[in-house]
Amino acid sequence: MTVKIVTDSTSDITRALAEELGVAVVPLTVIFGHETFLDRVDMTTDEFYRRLTRQEIYPTTTQPSPGAFAEVYKKLAAETNEILVIVISGKLSGTYQSAASARDIAGVKARIEVIDSTKTAMALGLLVIAAAKMAREGAPLKEIASAVRQRIPNTHPIMAFDTLKYLAKGGRIGKAQGLVGSLLRVRPVLTMRDGEVAPLTRLRSLAATMDYLYNTVASLKSIEELAVEHATTPDDADALVERLGKIYPRERIYRSTVSPVLGTYMGPNVLSVSYIEGK
């Protein structure tokens, strides 16, 4: 039986891609006051960013319940005896604990392995994509899980922010805390290290940001997977993909939009590249 792959909605893989690869996506929840919305299910990204930037109510988020994962496990266990779950960094969310706890609740005979990716956004998404491709080729659970863990240290998101106020408000600022309050008309560029947000550099303009993102990818000796995503600036993402297409097959560059849950912390105008560096 084919191994089934499960992830959470912060992986930012599109619904179409998830369906194509046979990946089950468990949504987190966005909360505006007394209103709750399942990530990428009950609210579009456009509507989310409109409310984020125009309303005074600051959104919060919550992880999926163990029960939400258990329901997915029960459904998939009817189709397979091996399930691999790859989720957002445990230092950013309690999603890993929910996914792990759900193994006992589900009460299925299928073997279920849960991996803390130590990533989020399309860095997590690329790990999920790589796992799904292996599953489609017939690789067993043990082999896929081992390959994912080996790829984690070589998987990186490079995220260019317009502001860090949303990360600071949401308590996800991590090792970039020292940048808060010191940035005036400067675009901070962050990554993730050891499961936490960490600073890379500060840039003065969009042009410099585009150069930095491009040059980061261009400096890599080998690229296994590559993705570009944005929050509210599709034209900038298009321009970056066009430029990256000169050094990497354009048709292999995954495109996505930052999900509402991640947008709660990243804010608008984020532009990022994520990649798995080849050996």
Please, could you describe this protein's structure?
There is one protein chain. With 279 residues, the protein is of the alpha/beta class. The chain folds into two domains: 4-29 and 62-153, Rossmann fold (3-Layer(aba) Sandwich), CATH 3.40.50; 154-277, Hypothetical Protein Tm841, Chain: A,domain 3 (2-Layer Sandwich). Helices cover 38% and strands 26% of the residues. It has ten helices and 13 strands. It has helices at residues 15-21, 45-54, 66-77, 95-106, 121-136, 141-151, 165-170, 206-218, 234-244, 260-266, and strands at 4-8, 23-26, 29-32, 35-38, 60-62, 82-87, 111-116, 155-160, 187-193, 196-203, 223-230, 253-257, 271-277. The strands form three sheets. A six-stranded mixed beta sheet has the order 10-9-8-13-11-12, sandwiched between helices. A four-stranded parallel beta sheet has the order 2-1-6-7, sandwiched between helices. Strand 1, helix 1 (15-21) and strand 2 (23-26) form a beta-alpha-beta unit. Helix 3 crosses helix 4, helix 5 runs antiparallel to helix 6 (141-151) and helix 8 (206-218) runs parallel beside helix 9 (234-244). It is globular, with a radius of gyration of 18 Å. 46% of the residues are buried. The model is unreliable at 170-183 (pLDDT under 50).
Write the layout of secondary structure elements.
Elements: E1 4-8, H1 15-21, E2 23-26, E3 29-32, E4 35-38, H2 45-54, E5 60-62, H3 66-77, E6 82-87, H4 95-106, E7 111-116, H5 121-136, H6 141-151, E8 155-160, H7 165-170, E9 187-193, E10 196-203, H8 206-218, E11 223-230, H9 234-244, E12 253-257, H10 260-266, E13 271-277
Helix pairs in contact: 3-4, 5-6, 8-9
